[in-house]
Amino acid sequence: MSRSLIRSIEIDSNIPKLTKAKIAALLAARFEKGFKGLADLPDPFDFHDMQRAVERIVQAIEEKEKIVVVGDYDVDGVVSSAIMEEFFELAEYPVEVVIPNRFKDGYGISPALLNRIDADVIITVDNGITAFEAADICKIRGIDLIITDHHTVAQTLPDAYAIINPKKAECSFAYPEICGAQVAWFLVGALKKRLGMDFEMSRFLDLLTLAIIADVMPLVSINRALVRKGLKIFCASTRPALEAIRTHLGKKRFAAADIGFSVAPRINSAGRMEDASEALRFLRSKNSGEANRYWLQLEEMNRLRRSIESKTMEEAMRMADPAAPIIVVGKEGWHEGVVGIVASRLVDRYGKPAIVLCMENGVAKGSGRSIGEVDLFSLLQMSERYLIRFGGHRMAAGLTLASKDLNAFRDEICNHAEKIDPSMFVSKEDVMGELPIDEIDWELMELIEHYEPYGEANNRPRFLIKDVQVLEARQIGANSDHLKLVLGNGRRLLQAIQFGFDKEIRRGELVTLTGVLQINEFNKKESIQFLVDKILP
Q1: Positive or negative, the Cα torsion across 475, 476, 482, 487?
Q2: pTM of the model as a whole
Q3: What pLDDT, on the 0 to 100 scale, is given for residue 351?
Q4: Statement: residue 537 has pLDDT above 60
Q5: Which residues of 243-282 are buried (b: 16+ CB within 10 A; e: fewer)?
Q6: What CA–CA distance (Å, rounded) separates 199 from 207?
Q7: What residues are paired with 357 via a beta bridge?
Q8: Which residue, 22, 49, 167, 504, has fewest beta-carbon neighbours within 10 Å?
Q9: pLDDT at residue 13 above 50?
Q10: How far is CA 113 from the centre of its chain?
């Protein structure tokens, strides 16, 4: 939560007092046009170039040509790769799946990656929309390049055989705000139809859900329908990888937040720290032994990632200029795999966009994250004279520039950001109202759960709880960095927890808090818990 929002809570005496009926009305208003269902999914052939791409892939299968799928190293790219690999396995056609190594190959289908690929047809998933040089190399080598991507499209497109991207001007697909794995899933649907194959497209929804949530897609419209169904499948899936996730996290019930905060970081850790192929092998595990082995590797990489991230965050905060409209920091020796996470942490800390860069051999490479309505991709476009390459979308982007240009780039992008209306920097997350703890019961939780999944564009209701007494307070966690509370008002008790707490709380204190309600599952028992994001003065 941004500091400006915290201040507004402290001084705003007009925050409404909530009842279950008021909460029900406010949540229903978000969907006044009704819910989209799976029956509302568009035809895959609504994508521009889908027909052309499908016919070329079918020709490659019929003529036994070599097909290579090129993915990406984040959750979206790994899931996209897993879906494509599983489809071709169902089609009983051998393909090679390649995920670039962040440190050796760079992002997406790069010239460096093409040096080790031999193919007749290359299909990219979750990347390729800015792969101009790679497309030219494919043309010279006689490789038909089919790009499937969802990132923002520049004014010109790579010279590829076919480009499937819902953000293309020529594309009539009704829902442009989808992730790369969804584009790949629709391609699979089109291929299934063209080849007359017999399987249910829902078989992929347990994986697809991971990508939609991890890539922070708006959980409205068809995204909501897919994730709602996908979470149910995820919780019952016999896929060895998902059985391992449920076992090791000790959970049977998974909400979107559980995927975003517990599952996605572990899958992402492989690409951040070593090689995303490890995450792909985990998702495609054939038995529980394989799945458990790969999960433990992901856990270890995630622990390492957290340690490096913590140190980098401390250094980045010392370098950041809190007065600047956008935080831009870079340093030699920072680990490329954590800069995106650190950028997100800086956004949370300062309530403004942030770009974090690691510098090596005269090149600065990193990631940016935005907030509110600030379009980070547009800011990069306006500053592109200093950039070697960049790509992404409104809320997140990757970029590369010469280290010597860092200061000039910072001045340029801050100059553009200063012209943006300050209201655009306000986080969309807001407090729905003041919630008396007497209103908190299983009936309220059932009401809140009805509007799951929560996430981007459908935020989980965030409440203000005022003047409750702290009956118990203890530090928990391996490093005693979390705070466990029991709160009460003389009539009812409420369990609460704050991760990474920032102030000491003593038994007997009266406190005011903001946060969200969740169902906590521990030792096969469920309880209502308030997840605290801020304890206010």
Answers
A1: negative
A2: 0.83
A3: 85
A4: no
A5: bbbbebeebeebbbbbbbeebbbbbbbbbbbbbbbbbbbb
A6: 16
A7: 330, 366
A8: 504
A9: no
A10: 25
Q: What is the pLDDT of residues 105-152, one digit of tens each?
A: 888 899 999 999 999 999 999 999 999 999 999 999 999 999 999 998
Mean pLDDT of 436-443: 94
The token pair that represents 392 in the structure block:
């992404």
Say what the pLDDT of residue 10 is: 44
Q: Are 213 and 230 in contact (CB under 8 A)?
A: no
Q: What three-state secondary structure class fits 163?
A: strand
Distance between CA atoms of residues 49 and 145, nearest Å:
12
Phi/psi of residue 204, nearest 5 degrees: -95, -5
Query: Is residue 98 within 8 Å of 124, Cβ to Cβ?
Result: no
The DSSP line for 361-378 is TTEEEEEEE--TT--HHH
Alpha-carbon distance 422 to 418, whole Å?
8
Angle between helices 288-319 and 264-273 (to 10 degrees): 70
Q: What does the block give as tokens for 384?
A: 């592109």
List the alpha helices (DSSP H) in 331-485: 339-350, 376-382, 406-417, 442-450
Task: Name the pLDDT band for 12 (thresholds 50, 70, 90).
Answer: very low
Phi, psi at 109, each rounded to 5°: -85, 90
